[in-house]
Write a structure and sequence with these properties.
Helix content is about 30%, strand content about 15%. It contains six helices and six strands; from the N terminus they run βααββββαααβα. It folds into two domains: about 60 residues, no CATH class; about 45 residues, no CATH class. It has about 140 residues and is α+β, with helices and mostly antiparallel strands. Bound molecules: iron/sulfur cluster (SF4). This is Flagellin N-methylase.
């Protein structure tokens, strides 16, 4: 079946595999954006015990009319702990981080999904993720 029929029968109908290895690649490296809205900023503030104003000032910036998390000069997310190689706000991480790698751009076709593996060693391996769960995650954000 071709990808042209993907609206009816997505190529990942039988589910996919993914388990985060916590390598940290998606939180570091090449510059990018991690969109955050007011509710997500509030959740981060609540988790860290800081004010929403401080979170906005110290960890976000405006880009293309929206708010994104900031990065250090080396590309690390400002919420990434380089020693522990982990996210310091994991429980309150934004939807963009929660739904990775099940973004529309990665699910567009199998080649797009397969191309993730060099940078995201968890994609295509580990726990089975059902079609319904993939849909649930991908519908939360359009990336
Ligand atoms: S790149 Fe993939 S495996 Fe590595 S931390 Fe991110 S989601 Fe996990």
């Amino acid at each position: 079946m071709s990808d042209q029929n993907s609206e009816q029968e997505p190529w990942y109908r039988d589910g996919l595999n993914f388990t985060c290895t916590q390598c940290g690649n998606c939180c570091t490296g090449a510059p990018g954006v991690v969109w955050v809205d007011d509710a997500e900023i509030k959740a981060i503030a609540d988790l860290t015990g800081k004010s929403t104003g401080e979170i906005m000032l110290m960890h976000t910036r405006l880009y293309a009319g929206r708010r994104t998390l900031t990065e250090y000069a080396n590309g690390d997310c400002t919420f990434f702990d380089p020693e522990k190689r982990g996210c310091t706000i994991y429980e309150a991480r934004p939807v963009q981080c929660r739904t990775w790698p099940f973004w529309n751009s990665n699910l567009k076709d199998k080649a797009s999904w397969d191309s993730l593996s060099p940078d995201c060693p968890g994609a295509g391996k580990g726990a089975f993720v059902s079609f319904e769960e993939i849909q649930k995650r991908s519908e939360q954000i359009d990336l």
